[in-house]
Specification:
Structural class: mainly beta
Distance between the termini: 44 Å
Order of helices and strands: EEEEE
Radius of gyration: 21 Å
Shape: flat
Strand content: 35-45%
Number of helices: 0
Length: 83
Amino acid sequence: MDLTKEQEGRHRKPLWFIEDAPWRAFQDREHTHGFAAFDVDPGDAREGRTRMRVTYYTFDGPHGELTPVDSVTLERPRGDAHR
């Protein structure tokens, strides 16, 4: 598809693509509302690792108490690490 020729006035025509996304159909009926919190540990050049912990919380009870449901830690090497 040549995008340079697809113009509508001064703007390009929008492109619509359809892709399979089975994950989007998942519903957690027990924890219907929540949010993710991110804790970042930039580390230092000696250690050479940066970490980000993501924790998903839900609201429980009549007063909306926060309950952690799941967490994951993402880790990668720092760009300025001494190797």
